[in-house]
């Protein structure tokens, strides 16, 4: 096992190395520039569309619930533990690079959703299916089929790690440390709850996500605003620290070991992508099921996921850690975020634990759909029920086992998912530009 861990660590260092980070940021920046920063300029349009009820087009779930399903999967441990880890390893400057990743990632997420809706299919059960494996298959042709298969394999396997066992473990740890619940009890309860939701497929998943995600996001945001309000006088200095250390090294102080600028960039970008999943190819699987007749309209809604996840939720975590000075404590992960909240709010650690548990639970639901569609692409609709059974059975195992190796494996597979997706997006970008130009030209005519 030690040899396997060492080999996987070496592979992880390669797939999350400079080429991957340059690829993710580079493609996002290219897409933003070619579209004249449209995803940023049209954010208001995206929010307007999000709350506009429309029955036009075919699909299984509303555009709003498609976004909530993708947010259910993206807003998870990365927003609480991941942000804290990035700051612990890269310093406050890592938060700046998370923001940059999100701003270019909006263009990536937009393009993913446009391709997902444009190249989606209807399966033998009458449901719409899409995502990287389908836009590779239908957009790039037979000679690229192997790339779609590779994505589906990596996505199906990664789901059991990052979207299942490690999330179950995070829930169990949070509820055990704060409320004294046993890991076994938590695992069994999650198995039952997730199983009940999965019976109804994407419709039930989206309905639960449509209610839980807004509630948990707003609640965590409000708690974070209270922390920032209590420390309002320290906010200007906190922003100064973040911007300063995005471009200059930070010296060791307190329990912080110090970090070079490269560390801030590497961990800011890597954790940003881990959190908002722009470029990984997971979110478009959910958006492909949206009830819409316009790929561009769904893309405008989809790109909001990156903004909400990173610019809003991750920023609350990061700013709370920096503004309270907790980043020099030597704590890391969820414990660092809990410390930041508890210094300003009585019982703040319980708020963080509860938020982490709910975030992780909804991530399990969202990723169950992603994994299911990857397995369905490989083996057909007959694989759906066996997959759901395995997904549910894996939860108590994840809740009760030590998962350092699984974390490493899942992180590696996440990066390997991104490779086929980034290649496909680069090759299909002319399609995205053409559809975008046609949509806004049509909107101008209607006005």
Give your account of this protein's structure.
The chain is mostly helical and 447 residues long. The protein is built from 20 helices and two strands. The protein has a two-stranded antiparallel ribbon. Strand 1 and strand 2 (128-129) form a beta hairpin. Helix 6 (77-90) packs across helix 16 and helix 8 (132-140) packs across helix 20. The longest helix is centred in the C-terminal third of the chain and has 43 residues, at 404-446.
**Helical residue percent?**
over 70%
- Poorly predicted ranges (pLDDT <50, ≥5 residues)? none
Task: Please state the overall shape, judged from the principal axes of the Cα atoms.
Answer: globular
Number of DSSP strand runs: 2
The number of helical segments is 20
For the report, how would you describe the main beta sheet?
A: 2 strands, antiparallel
Q: Give the strand order, joined by hyphens, for the main sheet.
A: 1-2
For the CA atoms, what is the radius of gyration? 21 Å
How much of the sequence is in beta strands?
under 5%
User: What is the overall pLDDT average?
Assistant: 89
Secondary structure class reads mainly alpha
End-to-end distance: 64 Å
What string gives the helices and strands in order? HHHHHHHEEHHHHHHHHHHHHH
């Amino acid at each position: 096992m030690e040899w396997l861990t060492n080999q996987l660590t070496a592979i992880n260092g390669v797939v999350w190395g400079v080429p991957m980070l340059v690829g993710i940021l580079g493609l996002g920046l290219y897409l933003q520039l070619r579209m004249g920063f449209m995803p940023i300029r049209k954010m208001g349009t995206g929010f307007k569309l999000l709350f506009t009820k429309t029955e036009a087009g075919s699909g299984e779930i509303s555009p709003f619930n498609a976004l909530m399903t993708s947010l259910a999967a993206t807003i998870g441990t990365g927003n609480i533990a991941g942000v804290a880890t990035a700051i612990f390893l890269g310093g406050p400057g890592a938060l700046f690079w998370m923001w940059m990743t999100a701003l270019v990632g909006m263009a990536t997420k937009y393009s993913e959703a446009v391709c997902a809706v444009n190249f989606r299919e209807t399966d033998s059960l009458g449901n719409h299916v899409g995502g990287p494996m389908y836009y590779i298959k239908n957009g790039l042709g037979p000679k690229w089929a192997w790339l779609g298969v590779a994505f589906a394999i990596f996505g199906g396997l990664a789901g059991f790690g990052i979207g299942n066992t490690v999330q179950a473990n995070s829930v169990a740890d949070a509820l055990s440390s704060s409320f004294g619940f046993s890991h076994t009890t938590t695992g069994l309860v999650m198995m039952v709850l997730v199983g009940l939701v999965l019976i109804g497929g994407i419709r039930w998943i989206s309905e639960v996500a449509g209610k839980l995600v807004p509630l948990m996001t707003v609640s965590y945001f409000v708690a974070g605003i209270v922390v920032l309000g209590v420390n309002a006088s320290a906010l200007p200095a906190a922003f100064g620290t973040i911007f300063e250390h995005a471009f200059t090294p930070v010296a060791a102080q307190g329990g912080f070991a110090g970090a070079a600028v490269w560390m801030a960039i590497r961990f800011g970008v890597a954790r940003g992508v881990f959190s908002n999943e722009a470029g990984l190819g997971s979110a478009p699987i959910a958006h492909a099921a949206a009830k819409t007749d316009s790929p561009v309209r769904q893309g405008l809604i989809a790109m909001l996921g990156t903004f909400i996840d990173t610019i809003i939720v991750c920023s609350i975590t990061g700013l709370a850690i920096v503004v309270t000075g907790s980043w020099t404590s030597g704590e890391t992960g969820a414990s660092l975020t809990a410390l930041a909240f508890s210094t300003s709010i009585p019982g703040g650690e319980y708020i963080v634990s509860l938020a982490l548990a709910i975030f992780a639970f909804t991530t399990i639901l969202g990723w169950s759909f992603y994994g299911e569609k990857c397995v369905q692409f490989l083996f057909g609709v007959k694989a759906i029920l066996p997959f759901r059974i395995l997904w549910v059975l894996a939860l108590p195992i994840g809740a009760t086992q030590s998962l350092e190796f699984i974390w490493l494996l899942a992180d590696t597979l996440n990066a390997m998912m991104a490779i086929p997706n980034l290649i496909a997006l680069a090759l299909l970008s002319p399609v995205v530009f053409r559809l975008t130009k046609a949509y806004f030209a049509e909107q101008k005519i209607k006005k």
